[in-house]
Amino acid sequence: MPTSVTATTSTPNLYRTPPHIVIGIVSVSVVASLFLAWLVYFHAPTDVAGTHLTFLPALNAVLNTCCTVALLFGLSFIRRRNVTAHRNSMFTAFLFSSLFLVTYITNHAMHGDMRFLGTGGIRPIYFSLLISHIFLSVVALPMILITFYLSLSGRFPLHRRLARFTYPIWLYVSVTGVVVYAMLAVYR
Predict the structure, then answer these.
(1) Each residue's pLDDT tens digit, 69-107
(2) What is the Cα 135 distance to its own chain's centre?
(3) What CATH fold (topology level) applies to the domain 55-186?
(4) Domain ranges (residues) in the chain
């Protein structure tokens, strides 16, 4: 009489992100954050006189503004269920954020950190915005990368669930980046 053997096969869980992807995204985010902290707080600027590429802070603000506009269009498109336009807007926002990061690194490598010269009641407002902007930009990076990964891998229910948190943080970081730049420019 033949014996019945039940074979257990392991089926991949389609709703679980592979650990190497999570480790990769977290690693990139940690390395990027540590590098930016080193660059801003420990690296000696190469152009102390500030005579080269002086347009970079303004370009950073323009890129953040463009990112904000793309994010707003992306939300508008997905609310109207125009997935293709939404995807294009979000890739555009990602492109602007990436270009911002390159120009931000270049600016800080060359010119160092800019000091806020405002006095009185504006200082706590500025530093509250700056601290929240910095903290949330560190939080946003892995969230943005994971949200993009979920979309690109076709896991749209999880993408939508995470995007509900990622989107407002990314939008806040983009908007406050412009506000911080404007405050620095006004109180120069």
Answers:
(1) 999 999 999 999 999 999 999 999 999 999 999 999 998
(2) 11
(3) Four Helix Bundle (Hemerythrin (Met), subunit A) (1.20.120)
(4) 55-186
